[in-house]
């Protein structure tokens, strides 16, 4: 078994601030993902990475940067937080790239922008 | 592009009721279809998957059958319990997609004792 750890659990920022979210996995999985979860809208893919130092944009990448410096970690940066923004950011990982593997999710980082 | 539609945003049932959550998809070829479940304060958990027409996936009493003809993968359970209260997500992935998933909007299930 393994686990995905996300830090921080709660993040409060100010409008215009740059904010960084971190994710660690000990599954030794190749592929990692960042999703944004908004109420009533499901999960939307922001960035994914198929190996160390690789980055691929998802459907919602505008306004975000990502970094995969090690196989086990994947960071997401909100480049300029938007006022009144509230969302949960979920990190996930999976083995292989075949399209049929399950994803394992962390507990999420809940963002509030004042 | 690929898309997943879950008809019900919220479902309220009593214990031992029969559950159906409808999921329809739009995609080319033969995508893999998944159900995930999310409990409060946690990330989604994989429930089960199916990857070919007429294949049935199942876990923890839940089941769904891949139907390419109706492009559906409806979730069913014969007798729900209060502990099944959660948000359920239908998702699709496909060959060569690096395991990227397209999720539906989710269905919140509330089961009353």
Mass-distribution shape of chain B? globular
Let me know the number of strands of chain A. 11
What is the H/E order of chain A? Answer: EEEEEEEEEEE
Main interface: chain pair and counts = A-B, 29 and 26 residues
Q: Which regions of chain A have little confidence, pLDDT < 50, spanning 5+ residues?
A: none
Element order, helices and strands of chain B?
Answer: EEEEEEEEEEEE
Which short descriptors sum up this protein?
heterodimer; A: 114 residues; mainly beta; seven-stranded mixed sheet; four-stranded antiparallel sheet; 0% helix; B: 113 residues; six-stranded mixed sheet; 12 strands
Describe the structure.
The complex is a heterodimer of chains A (114) and B (113). By secondary structure, chain A is mainly beta. Chain A is built from no helices and eleven strands. In chain A, strands 2, 4, 5, 6, 9, 10 and 11 form a seven-stranded mixed β-sheet that branches. A four-stranded antiparallel β-sheet of chain A has the order 1-3-8-7, with no helix packed on it. The termini of chain A are far apart. By secondary structure, chain B is mostly beta strands. Chain B is built from no helices and twelve strands. In chain B, strands 2, 5, 6, 10, 11 and 12 form a six-stranded mixed β-sheet that branches. In chain B, strand 5 (32-38) and strand 6 (45-50) form a beta hairpin. The N and C termini of chain B lie far apart (41 Å). The mean pLDDT of chain B is 94. Classes of the chains: A mainly beta (114), B mainly beta (113). The interface between A and B is medium-sized, with 29 and 26 residues.
């Amino acid at each position: 078994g393994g686990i995905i750890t996300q830090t921080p659990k709660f993040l409060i920022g100010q409008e215009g601030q740059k904010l960084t979210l971190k994710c660690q996995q000990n599954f030794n999985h190749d592929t990692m993902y960042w999703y944004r979860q908004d109420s009533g809208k499901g999960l939307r893919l922001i960035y994914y990475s198929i190996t160390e130092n690789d980055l691929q944009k998802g459907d919602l990448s505008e306004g975000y940067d990502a970094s995969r410096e090690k196989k086990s970690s994947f960071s997401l940066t909100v480049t300029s937080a938007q006022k009144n923004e509230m969302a949960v950011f979920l990190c996930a990982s999976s083995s292989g790239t075949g399209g049929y593997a399950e994803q394992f999710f962390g507990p999420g980082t809940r963002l509030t922008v004042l | 592009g690929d898309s997943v539609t879950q008809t019900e945003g919220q479902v309220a049932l009593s214990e031992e009721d029969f559950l159906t959550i409808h999921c329809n998809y739009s995609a080319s070829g033969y995508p893999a279809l998944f159900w995930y479940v999310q409990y409060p304060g946690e990330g989604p958990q994989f429930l089960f998957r199916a990857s070919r027409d007429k294949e049935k996936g199942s876990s923890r009493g839940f089941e769904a059958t891949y139907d390419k003809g109706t492009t559906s993968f409806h979730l069913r359970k014969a007798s729900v319990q209060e502990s099944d209260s959660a948000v359920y997500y239908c998702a699709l992935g496909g060959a060569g997609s690096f395991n990227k998933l397209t999720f539906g909007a989710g269905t919140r299930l509330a089961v009353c004792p």
